[in-house]
Design brief:
- By secondary structure, the protein is mainly beta.
- The protein has two helices and eight strands.
- It has an eight-stranded antiparallel β-barrel.
- A hairpin with a 2-residue loop joins strand 2 and strand 3.
- It is elongated and about 50 Å long.
- The termini are far apart.
């Protein structure tokens, strides 16, 4: 079921990007914001991947920012996990940090544990994100799509090993 939802969302995203790129009359530009930081939570990833994400982003330059994430996986089979992640965002298409379209290389590190199996695993996930952030007064909305390749070192936590997609919509407070 998760794979089917991921495929549908991937097709919708690619279609939206292609249709937006074909439009000749598209003059949209991100509205520059005086905000330099944003703290947000990603509730959609809880439904799609079973991960609760909290993110803090701050402006590094006029067209780039850093985003740090804290992640919690309540349960994945017999396992629970905590994770940290980081991304360096480049704002493109006339966007200004921290509003508009961004692309980012990303890195996540998960620490899985099982009290019943007495086992611990560490998973390194490397990949990239594409996001678009709107800021309305103090509140932010940021849909995000990403891909990761999970390197497990021989252990297997199926949801986070190998190639997997990310989908989220961060809701936050900009200041």
């Amino acid at each position: 079921m998760k794979t089917r939802i991921a495929n549908i969302l991937s097709v919708a995203l690619v279609s939206a990007i292609c249709l937006g790129g074909l439009s000749q009359a598209s003059f949209g530009q991100a509205r520059p914001s005086s905000k330099t930081s944003d703290i947000s939570i990603g509730p959609l990833s809880l439904l799609v991947q079973g991960v609760i994400s909290v993110q803090y982003e701050w402006k590094a330059s006029q067209t780039s920012s850093w985003a740090l994430r804290g992640e919690f996986v309540p349960t994945s089979g017999n396992f629970h996990a905590f994770g940290v992640g980081a991304a360096y965002r480049f704002y493109v298409a006339d966007s200004r940090a921290i509003t508009g379209l961004s692309v980012a290389p990303a890195l996540d590190l998960f620490f899985f544990g099982s009290s019943s199996l007495q086992q611990n695993y560490t998973i390194l996930s490397i990949g990239g994100d594409i996001a678009y952030k709107w800021i309305f007064d103090q509140f932010s909305v940021e849909p995000l799509v990403g891909v990761r390749i999970g390197v497990t070192g021989g252990q297997s936590v199926s949801a986070f090993s190998g190639f997997y997609p990310l989908f989220d919509c961060f809701l936050g407070y900009a200041f």
